[in-house]
Amino acid sequence: MSNPTVAEYVLCRLADLGISHIFGVPGDYSFGINDAVENVPSLRWVACANELNAAYAADGYARVRGAAILNTTFGVGELSAINGVMGSKAHRLPVFHLVGSPSERIKYQGLATHHNLGDGDFGRFKPISESACCVSAELTPDNAIEETERVIREALRQSMPAYITISELCGRQRVIGVPKVGVPLDQIKRQGSDPEELAAALTEITNRLTEARQPVAVVEALVARYGMAEEAARFISRTNIVFVTTPNGKGTLDESMPEFLGVYTGEGSWPEGVCDRVEAADLVLALGGLANVELNTGAWSTRFDPAKTITINDRWVQAGGKIFTPVAIDDVLRGLVERAQPVPSVPAIQPQAPAMVGSPDERLTSANLYPRLQRMLHAGDSLVIETGTCMFHLAKTLLPRGVESHSQTLWGSIGWGTPAALGVAMAKTNGRTWLVTGDGSHQLTYNEIAVMGRYGIKPVILVLNNGIYGVEYVVAEPVDHPHEYNNLANVQYHLIPAAMGCRGWLARRVGTVAELEEAFAAISGHDGGVYLEVMIPPEESQPEPAAYFNRQYKLSTPEPA
Amino acid sequence: MSNPTVAEYVLCRLADLGISHIFGVPGDYSFGINDAVENVPSLRWVACANELNAAYAADGYARVRGAAILNTTFGVGELSAINGVMGSKAHRLPVFHLVGSPSERIKYQGLATHHNLGDGDFGRFKPISESACCVSAELTPDNAIEETERVIREALRQSMPAYITISELCGRQRVIGVPKVGVPLDQIKRQGSDPEELAAALTEITNRLTEARQPVAVVEALVARYGMAEEAARFISRTNIVFVTTPNGKGTLDESMPEFLGVYTGEGSWPEGVCDRVEAADLVLALGGLANVELNTGAWSTRFDPAKTITINDRWVQAGGKIFTPVAIDDVLRGLVERAQPVPSVPAIQPQAPAMVGSPDERLTSANLYPRLQRMLHAGDSLVIETGTCMFHLAKTLLPRGVESHSQTLWGSIGWGTPAALGVAMAKTNGRTWLVTGDGSHQLTYNEIAVMGRYGIKPVILVLNNGIYGVEYVVAEPVDHPHEYNNLANVQYHLIPAAMGCRGWLARRVGTVAELEEAFAAISGHDGGVYLEVMIPPEESQPEPAAYFNRQYKLSTPEPA
Q: Whole-angstrom Cα distance, residue B368 to residue B397?
């Protein structure tokens, strides 16, 4: 684009990364950006139901494309989005949060505007929004070219969100200087390494691998954030090192790889034997760090002996008391693929698809639901797993070859899954997007179903309706009575797609195995969204590793007298 | 309650103010608070669809009851709510935002938890949430009694939200010390005045009133925030001073008062003659300050001559170059009721109910809709006006005797109206709650309809469906083509109440005058919620004072070359 406005310029520059959608809510102060989208042919505007949903959608999109754009307006819009953006920070996703702000022609006259506290303080919301990002900039015609480069570079280097404000006036003014043209994200070297530190780190790792008799790799989601999933798979295939994922890393690598052992999360590990196997390893090679929160570690029941653990973080490697820095995760993985030799072959644990149980007229339960769901997933599909009891069940469900999955096992903001599925579906170029969510989570954000219908997105959505906040029922540990606050409104979920204007969707309520199977059979020939309200008895909400929640609960309450 | 836990104590102490509902989303870290609600008989838990909706509901509730309680959890919950709480700060509503945080037993061990960034920084979200409040406290067993007093005192003094964190552990531990019992809000002296400053201010105002030949009062919403609406009405009746409201102050005083002239908002004033009348006054007495944002001032077209204006703010009075402080608004109004004498009688402008126009088979338009709506409002009813074009139409609609109204003419966060109507309805003890909202705003938060159905709330909701963001259509000023980003998803709104489980609701789509009249006729005999999807042609979205938006738009864009 020749002679672009500031808004057009930053959008073009972000589109160069391979981003082709922008999620947001339009609004005054932001029209400069909204209008600019219409002039950037490679970008499509996606009007989300609200800003938090837009932030979640951008989060999902960035998980697939590597980066995403979110657009909100000053004050009300950016604040509504902040929980979603903070979640992207936690999950290390470069979401570019573009915020339209009042015009300098208004500010410089000292005029007060709406979306503020009635005064002329226009700097009030910046520190709030910035706190969810790793870098920020206020773009003007004369700084836009340099500042855009800085913001993109730093957001990609740290793999975290960026906050970019553009006033309504500046957004419509032409950039001063020579516009730059960028390259796709996968062609960008995002971090650098000190050559000596890198060489030392690689020597340390390869030596330790050579010495190890029973090494195991642990794969975290951060590997995918830096576009290194294929490189990690190459390293594993080359060395034959067995590997596990954490719940947060699940779906990063193909679970059909022969080296895949299962999911390690301390006492909640799957399948049987995996926990012992990881903890008996003489070398644990943690690819992508370790998210040490209780949701990811079976309530802190994972056991890593620092002396036996090497952690490859984003830009540093830790081997016991040795720290190598700066060494970029991509340099380390590429170096290992070049140098590492096969490790001793040991019998692998073979995780199995969950056994098919249940007769046709049986009520749906976790035991008979997940095996049937698992067999519906095909190569190219993406599975979005909402926070809740389904997350624990699905952590123990083998993903078929070529199926990736996404969850929020760290930030854990209920409601994320539905808009994130929109973002994932928009980012994908083939395969279906599946969403499994409980009703407790879905109710927060199901207005996004209307947006899916509007844009012709065709996900398969399973809403597990048990009438309660299932996971909270577990965590709150009702001793003598169920807590009323865990009950939910009596939404007739199967009526939602039609009410929200989704045309050609298959929407059903299913309560038995036969009904589920019938609905699943109808999916293959169906060209449209699918929305199943899956009736699950409340007592089925109990995930198997409830014991470790009780530990957290007990930690949280006074000691018995 | 004897020997209460920290959570029980603060809830009891807040309930003493006259608060009987708590809006929120339950969750781990917050169970100490959730459980405590079950032990406070005077408090009812209201499970909102999400935290932003809960914040909006609390905002609505506080407008009626004077204060409200919002409960969210650490990180994800409090951040989701912040836009709503910031709106309550802008609109000067004491919303007590109670946030459950991780247990000290977790924090002191240095364990990382979910709802955070994977580290042990538990102080990350406090400055963010605090910024939407005027006071904050972290309650512990040994500070709960004193800190609760401080927080309540300051939130009421400043009439702004308060941020209170209670860890899961502390929430369940017993307070140390002697619990205090409070009194209802209307018995509390919230601010104090310096006696000499107060006397001087009253002298100044009464002298100026005595000299004035053509004084006018302007009433802002802040009068109601300090519980002074009745006192202001008494002052007006006693002095016979004619008065206007601003759009933001509309509904604060009864519009059937003979002294009521209309709504002053510069060029957008109503009815004809009001603008000249206010600007020709030799004394403008501004009760409750003046929100100088463009939405409230006809895009900054109000004209107040400082030499002729006296402003009675929350705790200070300005008369030209003289500032009197601290003088509390309640002391000033009470003093004026005692001292002020009748002002010269001048012919009042009599605003009229909008004329009934339109034949039965005519399509619904703003011209034929609002007159019919106006005639349906009865004493005791509350009208919640969402931000959007309806706000401008309703600013010019006479409220019948005993009808109050609420809007967000300052913060202007679209989506506020629907949950706020839930809060208003829960706070009221008689009369219906009416909500007028556009589809552009409604789509952000209509999942709250399920909550209304669940709790048996019976509002009358008019969703004006024109398929676009109407007000943005105006503000974005499409020159050659309508912007695609102003279009909305094709939601079948009249199907929403049934899909969301609202039993016994009257839900209809109406497109003609006859259909609207038929639906209105059905309301009187109907004991349940009413939900009308009102089909309005997009071109009808244009509010009459579009001209002043264009001024803002022009201010926001580059000067023509």
A: 12
Q: Which of A82, A443, A556 sits opposite B447 (nearest CB)?
A: A443
Question: Cα distance from B71 to chain A (closest Cα, Å)?
Answer: 12
A489 within 8 A of B501, measured Cβ to Cβ: yes
CB A266 within 8 A of CB A297: yes
Residue type, B61: Y
The token pair that represents B245 in the structure block: 């409201």
Q: Which residues pair with residue B429 across a beta bridge?
A: none
Please name the helix (run of DSSP H) or strand (run of DSSP E) that holds residue A394, with its range, or none: helix A389-395
Token representation of residue B545: 């004072």
CB contact under 8 Å between A413 and B486, yes or no, is no
Strands (E), B105-257: 135-139, 162-167, 215-219, 242-245
The C-alpha atoms of residue B277 and residue B264 are separated, in whole angstroms, by 10
Q: A52 and B492 in contact by Cβ < 8 A?
A: no
Helix (H, G, I), strand (E, B) or coil at B358: coil
Report the candidate in B268, B266, B306 with the shortest Cα–Cα distance to residue B284.
Answer: B306
Contact B316, B236 (CB under 8 A): no
Selection from B80, B327, B371, B307 nearest residue B194 by Cα: B327
Cβ pair B189, B25 in contact under 8 A: no
State how far the Cα of B240 lies from the Cα of B118, in Å rounded to an integer: 64
Closest chain B residue to the Cα of A82, Cα to Cα: B79
Q: How far apart are CA B208 and CA A73, in angstroms?
A: 44
Neighbours of B131 (CB within 10 A): 18
Element spanning A218, H or E? strand A215-219
Mind listing the pLDDT tens digit for each residue in A9-19? 999 999 999 99
Contacts 24+ apart (CB under 8 A), A365-369: A365/A536, A365/A537, A365/A540, A366/A393, A366/A536, A366/A540, A366/A543, A368/A513, A369/A464, A369/A516, A369/A534, A369/A536
**Residues contacting B346, CB < 8 A, separation 6+:** B214, B242
> At residue B91, what is the residue type?
H
ipTM: 0.97
Please choose, from the candidates A185, A147, A177, the residue with its C-alpha nearest in 3D space to the C-alpha of residue A165.
A147
What's the count of helices (H) and strands (E) in chain B, helices before strands? 22, 19
Per-residue tokens: B383: 């009208």
Tokens describing residue B496:
């929403």
Element (DSSP H or E) covering residue A263: strand A260-263
Instruction: Test B118 with A490 for CB contact under 8 angstroms.
Output: no
Of the residues B23, B40, B48, B83, the best mutation for testing chain A's interface (the one with the most A CB atoms within 10 Å of its CB) is B83
Q: Do you find a cis peptide bond into B271, omega within 30 degrees of 0? A: yes
Phi, psi (rounded to 5 degrees) for A215? -80, 160
Chain position carrying tokens 């008989």: B41
Judge: B173–A28 Cβ closer than 8 Å, yes or no.
no
Judge: A80–B413 Cβ closer than 8 Å, yes or no.
yes
- The helix (H) or strand (E) run that includes residue A6 is helix A6-15
Give the integer Cα–Cα distance in Å for B331 and B348.
28
> Which residue has 């997009």 as its token pair?
B538
Burial of A243 (0-12, 13-18, 19+ CB in 10 A): buried
Mean pLDDT by 10 residues, chain B (561 residues): 95 98 94 95 97 98 98 98 98 98 93 93 97 98 98 98 97 97 97 98 97 97 97 97 96 96 95 96 95 90 95 97 98 97 87 95 96 98 95 94 96 98 97 96 98 97 89 60 85 98 97 98 94 89 59 65 52
Q: What is the DSSP string of B203-246?
A: HHHHHHHHH-SSEEEEE-THHHHTT-HHHHHHHHHHHT-EEEE-
